[in-house]
């Protein structure tokens, strides 16, 4: 039986081969880098997980217990986390993909849990969705500060993280896969 999550470099490279569009995946890895830059989380931080998931061609990013960025090339779209105040703002996104449940700390404070919204198939995030008080960047910081670690850290693939942050490494790996 194969593991659902793969944490080695060869699995990362093999998984990249599921994507036909190098430009699309390049932009997606820029979004992973934006998650990292916004939160300041290092690869060894227990709160962040960059994964390779066998079940579909996507590279989800988890902070603590929640996906904050996920994609599925099978459906040609991606999802980002933001505050529930944006659930009806289809001028900014293509709909809500998932409503998160309240976690214990949120119940204690009566906090409203966030949502995952579908972004443009070209991975364009509207400025208001990206940067407003209820938007993606602010929600990333809230999620990073909400807990001290992810129960999924054992599934972290450091090569996904490295490809997001190190442009030379990414160019080498993408060169192997897409040329």
Detailed description of the structure:
The protein is of the alpha+beta class and 179 residues long. The chain has one domain (9-171). It contains 7 helices and 6 strands; from the N terminus they run ααβββββαβαααα. It has helices at 9-16, 22-39, 104-109, 127-131, 136-146, 158-165, 167-178, and strands at 48-50, 61-63, 66-72, 77-82, 96-99, 115-119. It has a 6-stranded antiparallel sheet. The longest helix has 18 residues, at 22-39. The protein is globular and about 50 Å long. The two termini are 31 Å apart.
The 3D shape can be described as globular
> What's the main sheet like?
6 strands, antiparallel
Assembly level: single chain
Radius of gyration: 16 Å
How would you summarize what this structure contains?
With 179 residues, the protein is an alpha+beta fold. The protein is 38% helix and 16% strand.
Looking at this protein, list some descriptive labels:
single chain, 179 residues, alpha+beta, 6-stranded antiparallel sheet, 7 helices, 38% helix, 16% strand, globular
SSE blueprint and pairings:
Blueprint: H1 9-16, H2 22-39, E1 48-50, E2 61-63, E3 66-72, E4 77-82, E5 96-99, H3 104-109, E6 115-119, H4 127-131, H5 136-146, H6 158-165, H7 167-178
Antiparallel strand pairs: 1-2, 2-3, 3-4, 4-6, 5-6
């Amino acid at each position: 039986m194969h593991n659902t999550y793969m944490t080695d470099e060869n699995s990362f490279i093999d998984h990249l081969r599921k994507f036909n569009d190098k430009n699309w995946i390049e932009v997606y890895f820029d979004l992973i880098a934006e998650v990292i830059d916004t939160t300041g989380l290092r690869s060894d931080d227990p709160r962040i997980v960059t994964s390779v998931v066998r079940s579909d061609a996507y590279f989800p990013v988890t902070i603590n217990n929640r996906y904050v960025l996920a994609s599925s090339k099978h459906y040609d779209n991606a999802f980002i986390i933001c505050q529930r105040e944006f659930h009806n703002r289809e001028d900014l996104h293509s709909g809500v993909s998932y409503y998160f449940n309240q976690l214990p700390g949120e119940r204690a404070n009566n906090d409203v849990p966030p949502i995952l919204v579908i972004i443009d198939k070209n991975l364009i995030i509207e400025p208001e969705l990206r940067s407003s008080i209820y938007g993606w960047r602010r929600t990333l910081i809230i999620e990073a500060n909400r807990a001290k670690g992810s129960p999924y850290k054992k599934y972290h693939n450091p090569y996904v993280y490295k490809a997001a942050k190190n442009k030379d490494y990414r160019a080498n790996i993408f060169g192997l896969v897409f040329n």
